[in-house]
Protein translation factor SUI1 homolog
Amino acid sequence: MSDLDDQLPSAFDPFAEADAEDSGAGAGTKDYVHVRVQQRNGRKSLTTVQGLKKEYSYNKILKDLKKEFCCNGTVVQDPELGQVIQLQGDQRKNVATFLVQAGIAKKESIKIHGF
């Protein structure tokens, strides 16, 4: 059995480097505000905003977003991501410009994901 152990290569984990980078860069990615669009059914879509600082009142931001863009929305508590703002429709560019104009986030710290 010891001869066999000498011949087998050690277990190689191809994702070990990626996991190490994720854990080290975890603090660096926390300062980004992620604006995503999710396709629902047919032409319907959903815009999600996550990564805002915890010191902000999510409900007040949501109220202003809903009034500004004439859409409905909600704040969802996700166990992994924390609080996430959801808006009806594809509001990615609108939300990004709103966050910059309101001074909530800098333009460089906003990541827009989607199609």
